[in-house]
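As noted in the main text, all predictions were made from sequence alone. Below is one such record, for Myomesin-3.
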Amino acid sequence: VSDLKTGHFYQFRVFAANAAGVGKPSDASEPFLCEKWSMPEPGCPYDLEFKEVRDDSLVLLWATPLYEGQSQITGYMLQISQSNQLDNWTILTAKPISETHYKVTGLQTGHTYRFRVSAVNNAGVGRASLPSEPVTVQTQPGTKEIKIGVDDDGFIFLGYEAVKMNDESEFLWSKNFTEPISSQRTKVETTKNRSMLTFTDPSEEDLGLYTVEMSHSPRLSSSYDFTAEDLERLRELSWQVRNPLIALKSAWQVEVSEKGSVRLWLQTESLSSSAELRLVFNDREISSSPRCKINFDTAKGLVEILFDQLSQEDEGSYTCQLRDGRAKNQCTLVFVDQKFREILALADWNRWDIQRKAGPYFQEFLTWSVNEDCELIIQCKVTNTSKDTSFKWFKDGVEIKDFAYDQTSGVCSLTIPQVTKKEAGSYRAVVSDSRGEDVSTLELLDNEYDKLLQLLSEQCALSAGPLRIESTAEGFKIYSSLRYYISFLKTSWYFKGRKIDQEARAKPGCSMQKVWIEILNPTENDKGEYTLEMLDGKETHKRFYELSTEAFAEALLEHQRLKQLAIAEKNRAKVIKGLPDVVAIMEGKSLCLTCFIDGDPAPEIFWLRNDREILDQTQFTITKESKRTSITVNKVTMEDSGKYSIFVRNQYGSETVDVTLSVYKKGEKPPANAVEMG
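Prediction:
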């Protein structure tokens, strides 16, 4: 009601009207004083209506209050109630919302609701609007939603399909429910019951909430929030539609045949017969030639470049450019440097391999291995041999004879029971006959020889037996027996977890088949756990021995026994040098035999002839000193021939040494096995 005057009172009546005419008026309203709005809070919103009613949600719209109050409206608060509970209102929004529309979610299908809205400004919350009409939450059968996509021409669009229409029905598009759609940025096309809103050049300016409703039934509506993520995704899809790619099944592949030919190929999806191919090598278009053949199978989408013999001049980049109608694609193979050299070498090898197999050849080239017995096995295998085939081995140019060759299996092997430094070198095997020759080499040097030593060390360590104890005259040894020991295998000893360094009483040692730690002058403190660690270059192998009280007592007792035997052996009477086995002298000459003796205490000395002590001091002269004794036979005769002995003894033992005397006449020859005297 407009054109009222401030300060005047007004009353109102309402008439009902229909086709038959106007009815009687209502009673007059209470007098209404027209005055300016003086409340600080805003007035109440009005014209509440519903859009997009679904099974569990709806969109509520309203009009801005006519009166803002003393400050600008900053938002709106919404309330909800069940249709039959008008006195029981529940706040829907914890904070004011800024728009004049709101999507209410979480409703129960089939239930009826009413809503009201209050405006908010700096002074507070204004009066609530009149309650909305009751609305039942339920999706109408056949209801459609706005869909977003890209059309066949690559344009981004929003599409909506109506459920029911009449001749006068129109699709009404808007932005944010109220803003008109820009005709400069969009185009609307309607075909039967389908409407499409197409963006001419979509950008961030076009983002936002788009709505569509039917003119004959505003509740038949839908909305879509066009986001930045949608824009990015659909721009990519739009580019793909406008610039379609021929799909690749396989990018460039390189293959080498057994005969040494090389094939470069790629495959796409099936193409039409009008598809076009352009091949570029190092910025130069190429076609089939005697050196390389090009195949293009459109049905299979297969592109091939075939080289009978690849050469250095074929190194470079190969680009395949394909076009099939509006679709196109290109793929580049960078065939250079190491990749090209490896393929070229493999192709050359395969061609050479075909040639060498015309005669006897190596089916398996020279290789080496180490068996469980720590033996080095160098082995190869030949095939396509005949009775005339010759097989030879060489090491550093010198022919090796002691190899084993089984003609049935073609296996040839060289077994080295114990590896030393002399096994390092260059090994070469040659098989040949009238049809051809093949050669295999094995360089067992530098890193390869170190690998051999490492593997040998591993096998040697694995062959190591459990630790045992052995008593000696000096103390006892804790040892492990191996197949054989090499210096590459690093050994360390530990006692009670602490490393044993070489010291006065502990001395590590090794031989070809044993490693040990020797404990000198053992004491009670030497009881405990001993550990042997063997490092083969990669792994550590361990052996353990627990020297218990009982084992220590037994070892100590044996050590003391052996020590006494050693003392007795050292001090016993013995002849240390001086007498040959057989001596010869001419009859009539004098013979002097001297020998050296040892022993503590000084031994007794006896000279014997034919096992009887010599007492005659006339023909025989005997001298005795502390470390030396001699016997002189004066003017020997034929009767003096025979066995002479020296016998020495003391409290620790005795020893006898024999010498045979042969007397010959003048003019005769002495025995060949005798030492001539005189």
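The longest strand covers residues 653-664. The chain has a mean pLDDT of 91. These features were considered when defining construct boundaries for the mutagenesis experiments described in Section 2.9.
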